[in-house]
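SEVERITY: medium
COMPONENT: batch folding queue
REPORTER: lab tech (J.R.)

DESCRIPTION
The queue accepted two submissions in a row. Attaching both inputs and their returned structure tokens so the on-call engineer can compare them side by side.

ATTACHMENT 1
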Amino acid sequence: MGEITGVTAVVHESYSFACMRCGHGWEQSYEIEHHRDAGGHEFVRYVAGGRIVPSPLSRPACANCDSHVVRIMRPGRVASARGTAPGQHRTPPAEIPRQRSRRHHLSGLLHALHLQRRAS
């Protein structure tokens, strides 16, 4: 990319993600830095948690199972589907076997997201 001449703008964006394989849901906020290189070409950098990361829209991966079959939604969808405030996470009861819990979690998350979309 050559020499960077500086940040021209910073935009803050947040997204909700749901893994269609294991049912894991999460939310992430990004600082999208718009830059111009020495040749005058514009490019962007996505920053999350102080680290430069790939664009969440290119090929997101589930942190739980590493699947790339991930649904991207507007912010707040995962937290509202779980019935929790953003940043809080609800975990399945320990007595439910892990595989059954994953299926139940995915089914519940998708059902809640579908109901919210119909109500919008």
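ATTACHMENT 2
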Amino acid sequence: MEKIELNKVIHEELLKVRSVATTKAEVINELGELLQEKGFINSTSEFIKDVYLREEEGETGIGQGVAIPHGKSTAVLETTVAIAVLEQEIEWETLDGEGVKVVIMFAVKDSDVNTTHVLLLQQVAILLANNTFIEAVKNVESADALYKLITEFQ
């Protein structure tokens, strides 16, 4: 399989390690604000509204302490991913009924729904099927280490 370059959709400035958010709403807001601050979305409120619309469709907590909330939104200027590794596990609707320690928020531009960008984002989901990867993410110490882990994991 051709190696997909995750560094095209993963940006170190969108990685938050040791987030002190204590609720689902806090971490969604924190990542939404980070996306706007770094110029990937043009409206935090519009994007977050779209994330919650998707949340209503079903659990985004995929288990093993990981949640993947996502919003397909006209507020997204560039398809990307923002990630928070939390200090403490938080409550989230999950497939395994457990809390969440890692939140990987997908921000998808409306026009990118069927493009290479979305295929690249799917590579993140493939990584999440690897238990070694998940444990390493939960224990990462810095945004730089998290970026290297995601873009270099074999």
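NOTES FROM REPORTER
Strands lie at 10-19, 61-63, 66-67, 70-73, 80-90, 100-109.
No errors were logged for either attachment.
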